[in-house]
Model the fold of this input.
Amino acid sequence: MAAPRHLQFDTLSLHAGQQPDPVTGARATPIYFTTSFVFRDCDHAAALFNMERAGHVYSRISNPTNAVLEERMAALEGGVAAIATASGQAALHLGLATIAGAGSHIVSSGALYGGSHNLLHYTLPRFGIETTFVKPRDLDAWRRAIRPNTRVLFAETLGNPGLDVLDVAAAAEIAHEHKIPLMVDSTFTTPYLLKPFDHGADLLFHSATKFLGGHGVAIGGVLVDGGTFDWAASGKFPELTDPYEGFHGMNFADESTVAPFSLRARREGLRDFGACMSPATAFQILQGIETLPLRMQRHVENTRKVVDFLVRQSAVESVAYPELSSHPDYALAKRLLPRGCGAVFSFNLKGDRAAGRRFIEALKIFSHLANVGDAKSLVIHPASTTHFRMSDAALVDAGIRPGTLRLSVGLEGPDDLIEDLSRGLRAAQKG
Amino acid sequence: MDYQVANKTAYAYTGGKAFDQKLPTVVFIHGGNQDHSVWILQSRYFAHHDYAVLALDLPGHGRSGGAPLARIEDIALWTLALLDAAGVKTAALIGHSMGSLAALECAARFPDRVSRIALLGTAFPMRVSPDLIEAAKNDEPAAQNMINIWSHSTHAHYPGNPGPGFWVMGENLRLMQRQKPGVLYADFAACNNYATGLERAKQVKCPALFLLGNRDAMTPPRNAKDLVNAISAAKVMTIDGSGHNLMGEKPDEVLDALIGILKT
Done:
């Protein structure tokens, strides 16, 4: 007997979580623009509220369009459940706030998107949650930073801004030695390039605004539960293993052996923090996911061509892309990311801030803006935009040089992109 | 709730409410390589609708101690012993797959203890294909993958179980992975070796509901026919669009059918 096959990634991208609408026959996922859902009778209402029947009550908690996105992402990641949120930041906050509270501690990679760093460094301490930042490559530093009250290890799969490749298996091993989960930000890799649950991560999230949506039209996030972490055996998460008076005294770990995290995150976090996704956004992100495998292949192909061009330019001092043998994570990337290291990377121009400004302002195809993961190519010069108040010395401390530029390579013809970058490099050298 | 059966911890989920033995009792018995959590929605419903609920973790599964039991007859005896430990005289037994055989065995051998039975995703004989049983013995991940694919009829559920956003196939796979090594093979062997199902079915006098998925590739409805014909008070309901994981794929339909038999 031939062993049955799972659907391939490309097929799941189109079909997981959705069938033609049983009432209308609509092939595409309908947008359920409704705040609330009619109960069949009082007993049905009570059963929905008390988790005796599955269904929708109110679109802050769940919505049929969002559910397709959530179930599709859980399928693509190989997890057990997902929650669509208002943004990637909302997904990060929901994930952390479900398992950490006043008195908790987090150990995080320091190579983070600025928004995530702000949340951990400045905002969460106001709510009694402290974070210790470590260099993601320093495994001993992760170990040393863990305290008895540490509740989670957190890192990006490809760190910001130098694309530090997270050794997911090694970080997960450290987390599990201490009976805590590993949570990763998978935005830059998407499940097409890396499935962190296969390497031991327990929770992950995406800024769906980026490659998942892929078209730069919608802000959203998705938090995914791998279903791997044994919260009950850990003994460190009473939020999941003790009765919760805020939801009928429910003990989430009794209810679900594999997904108590997701039960609590939805029934407490979405309900009380309220950072839900609009069903219109869920629809837009789903349109993006349908072509995720095709787009990611092209993103990576184009990026490789752009990187190959840049490393050969005399005006370029260095390029930080893990497929280059000069990158400190070259060997790890080769093993962990055989399909490619994504389409966002930084390079350093020779010259000062003014050279960076001239480069940016000469470009015609790359758009100068604060986003990544769009179908269109994007560029930003941190020294003259996001970090313009910093002195040159302070920039270096932050891992940024006056000539550092970040590119997000899109889906345009690669020759056009290279011609555009050539134009920028010529302008930069004219100063 | 933890009980002691044969000097081992026996865990039973009580549906989110304290167990009250004065109420009519419903016992849920899971299938191979699973635990009580496959019944979340149905067990919570009955616990909040004037029933006392015991959703079991069979020995060696989930939170219950000991090793998995080698024979269906042993699972039936263990279930009776758990009822004794819980102070329950009679109960309705609801079993899925391997658990359905245990419910059948109990109803036949202990008619004064079993008020009715519901058999979900059942068949007799419950033979496991040689390839699958070989994989269960020597390559559990491969066996779990086969079971997960064969147990589901679709990659989309409306809504997910236990609620929107839950990926039913992912949960089922993780739940199997969560069981201890060797449990899957022991359970399959117990199903494979159970030989007296037809004789037992003829002895069943209580109301019996067969709940079958019309797209069940593990226990196709046709393989339940002999059992159905052997039980005088049998009622058959087929759930359209459901595979073997009936509680995961069609939780509301399963619940409505169970409400029907328990109210009879």
Q: What stands out?
A: Chain A touches chain B through 56 residues (CB under 8 Å).
